[in-house]
Design brief:
Blueprint: H1 2-5, H2 8-15, H3 19-41, H4 49-70
Length: 71
């Protein structure tokens, strides 16, 4: 809810020099925070194998995008 009160992305998009990288970083932080919170609270057992597979595939996709943009 705090993120909705303070539109951080509007500020980042103005000052960013590499918007694609900043977007990927933002998405990565959201995913890591969500999964870490679920594991800390003990709710990770409620995630099904499809959701874990999707998380792994999304992570691999972000790594591959980073490798592509680095070259």
């Amino acid at each position: 809810m705090v993120g909705a009160l303070c539109p951080l992305w509007a500020f980042v998009s103005v000052v960013s020099r590499n918007l694609m990288w900043d977007g990927m970083l933002y998405d990565s932080i959201l995913v890591i925070t969500f999964v870490s919170t679920m594991m800390y609270l003990g709710d990770d057992s409620k995630l099904q194998w499809q959701q874990w597979l999707g998380l792994i595939l999304a992570t691999i996709g972000m790594i591959l995008m980073k490798i592509h943009f680095k070259n």
